[in-house]
Amino acid sequence: MTTIANFVKEKEFLICIDSDGSAIDTMTEKHKKAFGPQAVNVWKLEEIKADFLQKWDKVNLYSHTRGINRFQGLIKTFNELKAEGYELPEIDQIEKWTEESSELSNPALSREIENNENNQQLKLALNWSRQVNQEISKLEKDSTKVFAGVKKILAEISTKADLAVVSSANQEALLDEWESYDLKQYVKVILGQEAGTKADNIKDLKAKGYENNKILMIGDAPGDLRAAQKNNVLFYPIIPCEEAESWLKFAKKAAAKFFSGDYQGNYEENLIKKFNFILK
């Protein structure tokens, strides 16, 4: 299932799980082999390639904007480099679209281009995003990319909670990965960028009848935390570079606390404090 419309609440608890960088170790590879390099190609940035890719990784992987939407990450990378004195192509029309559109995805961008056929900036952005998806589809599928313990944990918690993948990644890639890695069987719905923002998806899932303290968002990026907080639900952080340890801690202690109602409060606050410190 890839839409919330037909989602039916079956259990008392709901656990939403981010994919890239949280359940599956694909986030870094996608940025280093697809997102950044294709931006260099599309906007012809070969002369500043090393500096651009370094900034791209900082914005999208190694800072408080980790996990940002691809189009917003593009804007932020360009703007930060411009602020540092680099000369880059104009992307003000792309930025305007990201600020005004309610959906930041390829289909939404395609619709915008239909209404603005002469907008070359938007066409470049769509070309880049499509090339990124093509490169991602070529990446090798390797079961070792699933973080240690994830499959077993999903099997266990799916008996107590309805599970939903809530991600800003491309829908097609998500379906392919969760199917390839034999994880799809444990989740009721897989929601990518085409389904809307993470905050909106959590809101719509919550409307199916779950109580706030019985909903948990598991993620590795500040955007996951903000999506949870916007909906007044709980958050469990997957710490970057400590993913396997984070899942082990979840299996040994955090999951039980969540199901028993003892998660909210000091326990959750201390986890979030460490998370924010690492990605400050």
UniProtKB/TrEMBL annotation:
Pfam families: HAD_2 (PF13419)
Superkingdom of the source species: Bacteria
GO biological process: DNA repair
Keywords (A to Z) from UniProt: Hydrolase
GO molecular function: phosphoglycolate phosphatase activity
Cited SUPFAM superfamilies: HAD-like
Parts forming coiled coils: none
InterPro entries: HAD-like_hydrolase_sf, HAD-like_sf, HAD_2, HAD_sf, PGP-like_dom2
Protein's UniProt name: Phosphoglycolate phosphatase-like HAD superfamily hydrolase
